[in-house]
Design brief:
The protein is mainly α. It has two domains: 217 residues, Hypothetical protein af1432; 79 residues, no CATH class. Helices cover 63% and strands 0% of the residues. The protein contains 18 helices and no strands. α3 runs antiparallel to α4, α6 packs across α7 and α11 packs across α12. The longest helix is centred in the middle third of the chain and has 22 residues.
Amino acid sequence: MKIFEKIKRYAALSTGNFERIFGDKEVPILPEAVMKLNEALQEPECDVKKIANIINSDPGLSVEILKVANSAFFGFKSEIKTVQQAVSALGLRNIESIAVAYGVQKAVKNPDVGGFDFNLFWSTSLYRALVSRELSKELKMGSPDEAFVAALLQDIALPVLLKEWFNEYKMVYETWLKEKRPLSEIENEKLSWNHAQAGAWMAKRWKLPAIHVCCIGLHIEPLEKIRKIGLDKTSAVPVAISSKVPPRESDQKMLKEELEMCGLAPSRFEEICDKCVHTLEEIANLFNIKEVKLPQSSKSE
């Protein structure tokens, strides 16, 4: 079976029976321009002018794209004055990353539940996205841009579950706060589904590419499982490894084994993580993160 077919097949499997489980629930709605952009970027021949027109239809997205294009992070020599110039300069994959981040941050609200730090959530998500992108480059697995977006959204179901579906999720969350057990283990025990599956289902509803759906659904799984289903050369691997940073005590052994499986020395992995902490501090404001926070040691997911 070809890789693309495997991705499509697992994307369908990973979303499970969520249409039945949450048929009466609403998924946060992405801005219309972001939804249209997601679809347009998946077309075989993507026209720069068409992409620019979609972006221009949303003033907030236009401002965001121009802000990022003119940031020190990209460091273009001359000012980018129009969205079309920004699309040409940044490239379609960077445009996708910026647009998805903008749209999801607009759609997903702070659940305002005790024990959940929304700023910490976004700081950690962006950090993991940066690590995933660098691992994709280092290991030559998948696309760095795919790895970035999928890792950024790997835990996106958590704030939604806590805000929109709290009645169904309350017992899981309260147990997780009390016990030092993986969140997914508690979810599967009490609900027979987990936040990775819920996130994959949301990504599918948002019309994100199948590879993103796949990576989100697989991020809590060991690399051995990813290998068995034939996705070990895709972005699923860097995303899954990124889910274990900052390293939690419960993840140390598995992380060491998985880095060995990938042929990546722990010292090199530490260098990548340190670089990404520095990058996170540089670009956090571009993703509207007011204060960079990372857990010293966090609960398992």
